[in-house]
Amino acid sequence: MLLAGCQGPQSALAPAGPAAQAAAWLWWGMLGWFALVWAAVLGLWLYALVRRPPDCDEARAKRLGRRWIVAGGLLLPGFSILALLVFGIPQGLCMLPLPREGEAPLRIEVIGHQWWWEVSYPQSGVVTANRLALPVGRPVDLELTSADVIHSFWVPSLAGKLDMLPGRRLTLRLVAGRAGVYRGQCAEFCGAQHARMALSVEALVPEEFERWQAARQVAPPVPAEHAAAVAAFRPYCGQCHRVAGVSPGGRGPDLTDVGSRPSLGAGTLAMGEGAMRRWLGEHQRLKPHNGMPRHDALPAGTLDAIAAWLESLGP
Ligand code: HEC
Ligand SMILES: [Cu+2]
Predict the structure, then answer these.
(1) If you measure from the C-alpha of residue 188 to the centroid of ligand 2, how many angstroms do you get, rounded to a whole number?
(2) What is the rounded distance in angstroms from the CA atom of residue 297 to the CA atom of residue 307?
(3) Which residue ranges run through the membrane (predicted)?
């Protein structure tokens, strides 16, 4: 159980990129050094318990005591903090969006909402939600902000965490070193469903990333079999949800590629047979107080049709 945090898709100790690697080294260094300090203090404490009181005059005892305080209370912590700075500052530099030579970093905007993530790719115009695809090996500048309260962006396997502040834009630079799926989680308490605000991060090899993006750049026409669903969706859902070529949206996650998402409700419900219909019927039970109203007034058949259409969206 003690080692449970050392592996898995959401562990700072299973780094998959240089920024996370730096944080992991720092963590192990701190663990090692401070374990040594702790063991030494324990040793001294045990020694003090068992030894006989020294047989010397009071002035000398005071002098000895002072020496311990200066060495153990000032020099040792001073040295430890200095060592931490000497190692920590260069490690921290590799997380900053400093100007660099060579290929320009890919810009991706991530906006925190209660309780979901809006993700957009300004260069291609692709917008998605609750999932972030990135190319492996290329630096990525994530421009972070919030639409409501303070959130915090944290994908422990890829980088350190950075707050998302309403009205401000902060940039987090990261490079994914290995292809894979990592898990991110909002790391700043942001309300009732803060715990159900997960982000699925897919690091793809560059060609696959280009395909991922290109497949989302063109909105295919709506097939005739889904025309009734779209007609119901527009007035009931379209003012909140954008679907490219169908509705403008504005307050909820973009649904243009929703059928290809690994989960619904920012990690609340794994995508699969019947998941979409279940979300439409029970989302306030699955994720209480989330920003989407109940749709009890809509006939079940209409929700069935909308769910079937939404499932078909996305490449
Ligand atoms: C008042 C705005 C609003 C309306 C109207 C609305 N929704 Fe939503 N919807 C949201 C918000 C906000 C979320 C995000 C909830 C969360 O995860 O916290 C959401 C989430 C969703 C999701 C999950 C998306 C994802 O990737 O996790 C689906 C699917 C969805 N809505 C479909 C619909 C359908 C279908 C309708 C119409 C019947 C509808 N919504 C009406 C605001 C709205
Ligand atoms: Cu949060």
Answers:
(1) 5
(2) 16
(3) 25-47, 68-89
Amino acid code (one letter) for 103: E
Q: Which CATH number is correct for 224-311, 3.30.360.10, 3.40.710.10, 3.30.390.30, 2.60.40.420?
A: 2.60.40.420
Cα(255)–Cα(241) distance, integer angstroms: 6
Reading the block at residue 66, the tokens are 């002072």
CA distance 144 to 306: 32
- Enclosing H/E stretch for 304: helix 300-311
Which of 119, 193, 237, 278 to mutate for ligand 1's pocket (most ligand atoms within 8 Å of CB)? 237
Distances (CA, A) of 255 to 24, 113, 222, 298: 36, 15, 14, 19
**What is the C-alpha end-to-end distance of the chain, expressed in Å?**
40
Radius of gyration of the chain (CA): 26
> Tokens 């090692």 appear where?
32
260-278 residue pLDDT tens: 999 999 999 999 999 999 9
Which positions ≥6 away from 36 have C-beta within 8 Å?
none
- CA distance to 7, 237, 249, per residue, from 2 (Å): 11, 46, 46
Q: Is there an atom of ligand 1 within 6 Å of 251 CB?
A: yes
Burial of 55 (0-12, 13-18, 19+ CB in 10 A): exposed
pLDDT digits (tens, 9 = 90+) for 47-57: 989 988 777 78
pLDDT digits (tens, 9 = 90+) for 196-239: 999 999 999 999 999 999 999 888 888 889 999 999 999 999 99
CATH architecture of the region 106-215:
Sandwich (2.60)
Instruction: Show the tokens assigned to 203.
Output: 């690091």
Contact 134, 19 (CB under 8 A): no
pTM: 0.89
